[in-house]
Design goal:
Structural class of chain A: mainly alpha
Shape of chain B: globular
Radius of gyration of chain B: 17 Å
Order of helices and strands of chain A: HHHHHEEHHHHH
Number of helices of chain A: 10
Radius of gyration of chain A: 24 Å
Oligomer: heterodimer
Chain lengths: 260, 174
């Protein structure tokens, strides 16, 4: 039973080596900036930035394609929305369905923006292992501790959850096979029947997970885990000059896109 | 946050992410009309505060696999934290089941309007529909089951299941 939990592609590239905190801030800033201006020129600037980032990441093209394939429905939806609720004068109409030049242009713009968003996002998710991403989030969330948001505990929670997902998927598989052997049928009937069929799978899964949680808590307490205490890391984060350079380039791209 | 609470929250996160990403179930977990079986887990938030943090983290992890992770991770986590917090305040009552339907419907509807220019209320209707199917069938069954034997699944205040049924653990300690 295999499931892609993350999109990480291991390789050695300038983007893989960059500090995850810098990458996270850069990608978030670009993603927000992407939605602040509705011009093709600004979009072109971000598209170029996305392509350059992808080139630097040394990730094979088909990995990005794999990320883009599932959003084709969203692009199709964009066009359907524009056909059904077209703004401007329609040049073609069939009952409630109308096509207008303006609507098609808008749908095209939104689709390209979506693809650029995925390209920029992939520069982070394809080049950063999940644990590094978690460390970056914990570090960036530290100011929130003043608001009593336990950022370090949340990060530990993510790490623990990532570790248990494969275990639980194996468990889920075992339970489903066991119930099938007893005559359970998961693939026929309407939504209500299917949902009911899942109950004999979910309940044992919950029992198993609560039991694991108890064992885990006991193991943590036995190793003197103290909530809220400062923790050390196996791989401490080190920001370098290249990370400052990365942030400077991203800032320049955003400025360029907002004046163009 | 005690180690016990943290460990339970981590397991909620793992179960949520696992059920969302599980092959066979994941095909219908993203998109406008989504049936996320994992959403039934929000019912646990009515009983256990650890589920608020756990399911928020679980949504964030599950949404990293979404193609539009940049938006889906912060949005999904924020929506789940709001929905589960409200459910915890409402407690194990039937109206709690409506909370995630409304919160996710409005939130994801807004996200779809932002991304694909889908008219807001159409997006809300689509998303709420998928969410309602999951919660009013599986969620309702789970809520009824948990109300009958809360605690027996190892929820706080209850006896661990092994002690009740003489499972592995009881046998091991003998």
């Amino acid at each position: 039973m295999k499931a892609a939990i993350t999109q990480y592609y291991p390789a050695d590239s300038p983007l893989h080596r960059a500090d995850p905190r810098a990458k996270f801030v850069a990608v978030m800033a670009l993603a927000v900036a992407l939605f602040t201006r509705d011009s093709w020129a600004a979009l072109a600037v971000y598209a170029v930035a996305g392509v350059v980032a992808f080139g630097l990441s040394r990730v094979p093209l088909r990995w990005v394609w794999r990320a883009m394939k599932p959003v084709l429905w969203l692009i199709a939806l964009t066009f359907v929305a524009q056909i059904l609720f077209a703004p401007g004068d329609p040049f073609f109409s069939l009952g409630p369905f109308e096509l207008s030049g303006e609507g098609l242009r808008l749908a095209g713009f939104l689709s390209v923006r979506l693809l650029v968003l995925i390209l920029i996002g992939s520069a982070l998710t394809l080049t950063t292992p999940p644990v590094a991403l978690t460390d970056a989030l914990a570090w960036l969330g530290r100011p929130l501790r003043r608001l009593r948001v336990p950022s370090d505990e949340l990060a530990l929670m993510i790490t623990l959850a990532l570790r248990f997902i494969p275990t639980l998927l194996v468990e889920l598989d075992t339970i489903m096979r066991a119930q099938r052997a007893r005559g359970a049928d998961f693939s026929s009937g309407g939504p209500v029947r299917r949902a009911r069929a899942l109950i004999p799978v979910l309940v044992p899964l919950f029992v198993v997970s609560f039991r694991r949680a108890d064992d885990l808590a006991l193991a943590m307490e036995a190793r003197c885990y103290t909530p809220g205490a400062p923790r050390t890391r196996l791989h401490p984060l080190h920001a370098r000059l290249t990370d400052a350079f990365l942030l400077a380039v991203v800032a320049a791209v955003i400025v360029l896109a907002s004046v163009i | 946050m005690s180690a016990r609470l943290l460990a339970r929250a981590a397991l909620y996160a793992a179960v949520y992410a696992g059920l969302t990403l599980a092959p066979g179930l994941s095909a219908i977990a993203y998109g406008p009309v989504q049936f996320r079986v994992s959403e039934v887990l929000t019912v646990f938030a009515c009983f256990d505060p650890a589920a608020i943090a756990g399911l928020t983290v679980g949504t964030a992890i599950a949404n990293v696999a979404s193609p539009i992770a940049v938006l889906d991770v912060p949005f999904g986590a924020a929506l789940t934290s709001v929905a589960t917090y409200v459910m915890w305040r409402l407690g194990p009552r039937w109206p709690s089941l409506v909370v995630p339907v409304v919160v996710n419907g409005l939130g994801v509807g807004f996200e779809l309007a932002l991304l694909a220019d889908v008219p807001f209320w159409y997006g809300v209707a689509f998303v709420s529909l998928g969410e309602a199917v999951v919660l009013f069938t599986g969620g309702a069954a789970l809520l009824a089951a948990l109300r009958r034997h809360d605690g027996r699944l190892g929820l706080p205040g209850g006896t661990p299941p092994a002690a009740l049924h003489g499972g592995d653990e009881a046998r091991r300690t003998r």
